[in-house]
């Protein structure tokens, strides 16, 4: 048996060499390709392990806190915490802390937003014309937001400057209806002129400057109807005094203070836990950090301790336009009652004199005060926006049914011209009052810089970021142009779509004194949990995090989300136009997609297994094709052996042994080539992996020889000596009129087994190609669109290309081998056609056409396999996948034609005399 095997290998050296080359190529290709798959997985694992962890691993929220969009898409809007107002009790928080494996449990209570004041100092000294006895300077303040697209014009400020003597009001005596002035003048009350200075006229008479009472109408709580009217005297020495005040208080510069109210977020934390989670204590840039036991009691005048942000979190600008009013109107001001003056000023023209701009500043302690204070009024709670889904899958925030600014509480809560003008913009959130105290006071103990918080990977930012305001970029050229290529940022409107991150941070211990003991009991909005000993995202770690999350959910009954491995993902949002001028915008926001790292690991695991399987199938079928062809080439020889008494098992063993010897030799050579070849293609393959090529090649050879060996054992001596080509069903004569294409078509029907084998080879190549493309598309589709997913995809895309290219090469070689064997077995027939007058060109086209026809059949089958995998793994067959599959099928047909080139050219070497002699 062994002698026969060696004899056959030497005698049929060309077939042995072809089989050796096939096994060598398949084994080496498999070793290198599996190396690329392992490399892909190592790269992905390394990338994920370096970026999977955010500030916390588990997020606990009140029951029912998940929105409809979150449940549907698994994504969380930026700063969703701004609309989560309490819902977790202190007892539930303690239960979370007690769960084994919890390293840090940091609670945060979103208390809402509150009003704080901003002041702009406008120096108008240079606008004063010292040659005029009287003049009126108008300051028109406008609040700008949304990158200047939204503007709210507040009432104008008027500064009356006179060189005539001024007599101020004697406030000590003016306690009743009669107004007393510092020179002893007493005047009875007068409608629309109950206050104001007296101005001495050129003729010595004294007239009231009633414009000072414009801003004191009792029914103007918002400061939108009556303009402030300030009176200044220009003294002979060039200094300025206010309203007839003592000259000793006069100033060299005329500076007007314009103040406005804005809203800032207020949140409460556990200082110790927040320091452990984010390093908030290390982000303090001035002052000191919060103490855990610091409380507040507003009833007892114990101020609220707060940390204030070092930089503003809103896009809000005050623009002041300066102008001087016509002199003719100015001359009529003395003695004119305020309502008449108000009407005249509303129609007056003012010569422009420039503009000044002032940015909104975060509340900061005033170093000039002995006890720094921040005075604010009340606490507002904003709800979450609701969304409709657009036709293209985007989101459209629903405009609130309530009128903009309808939540304003009239009275002392919003008086003296303090109403933020931007609250009258379009509302996307419901707003309610959380605290009815008319005046709250806070003591800033320190200033923190959010940029100095402990850094985590930008690729894995977790949902509900506490210290970073959301931004939205333009999603189309029009929106980007409107925004000036800058992102849309929050304004101070608590009912607006974007709401800023908290700029005031206090302690949980201070919440009862702020909201009351009952409201403070369940004031916690979320608990951020970090699990102990999390270094990598392996299966054991994922299971441990899942177990802790499950225990928290079971113990507390709260909504629990595993946020480890979250990453940012683009979300398109169509924002309706605002009432203050902002047009409709198409925006792109970074939403947090939960579990991206876990999805990547699961996807790459499945992708690796499928790649291994496909490459293995390619190799086995490639070898099976070559071995089957070798057995078919030896049918007469095997029949002779069967006639002389060889049993079936011995025939099968001989065929298997021949293939096994060739496989063992190819495996040894493959082991020697694997390491240097892997270095050439930059794929790490160690010695142990290379040595696996030996048993792998032997195994592949034996498996591939099973079917051919069975065929050899089953061969009957009589049928084995029959012609190789099966007879046609009806005899036909080859006529001159028949075309080469029709002859090729008949030939494919005459040999159904050989045609099927070749078609399977093509289907294998096209199917593997489309399947790998599908897997790559599904894998990238599952993880791309997020920052972490995009980074991983860039790492694995080249590896996928190598795998696809190598699979195609194996398929093309398999088809070429089938066609070459077909030419050899039909060489006598082809030589006869040549002798009958067929030229070399006709014979070449005959073989090429057969290859294309077989390739077309295989390509269709392979395309079907590709579509099956799309439907299986993507749960749908999108138009892009159909187009890609069709392109793959056309490529398969083209490659089939290319694979037929060499077998077709070999026809030209056929010689009739030699072939007849062999017969």
Automatic annotation (TrEMBL):
Among InterPro entries, the record links this protein to: ABC3_permease_C (IPR003838), Macrolide_Exporter_MacB (IPR050250)
- Listed Pfam families: FtsX
Q: Mind telling me which residue stretches traverse the membrane in this protein?
A: 609-631, 651-678, 690-710, 756-779, 799-821, 842-869, 881-905
Q: Specify where the region named Disordered lies, as residue ranges.
A: 465-487
Q: How does it sit in the membrane?
A: Multi-pass membrane protein
GO MF term list = transmembrane transporter activity
* Keywords associated with the record: Cell membrane, Membrane, Transmembrane, Transmembrane helix
Q: What is its main location?
A: membrane
User: Which terms in the GO cellular component ontology are assigned?
Assistant: plasma membrane
Q: Where is the composition biased (Basic and acidic residues)?
A: 468-484
What residue stretches are annotated with the ABC3 transporter permease C-terminal domain? Answer: 610-716, 802-910
Q: Where found?
A: Cell membrane
Quote the PANTHER family the UniProt record gives.
ABC TRANSPORTER PERMEASE YTRF (PTHR30572:SF4), MEMBRANE COMPONENT OF TRANSPORTER-RELATED (PTHR30572)
Q: What family does the Swiss-Prot or TrEMBL record give for this protein?
A: Belongs to the ABC-4 integral membrane protein family.
Entry protein name: ABC3 transporter permease C-terminal domain-containing protein
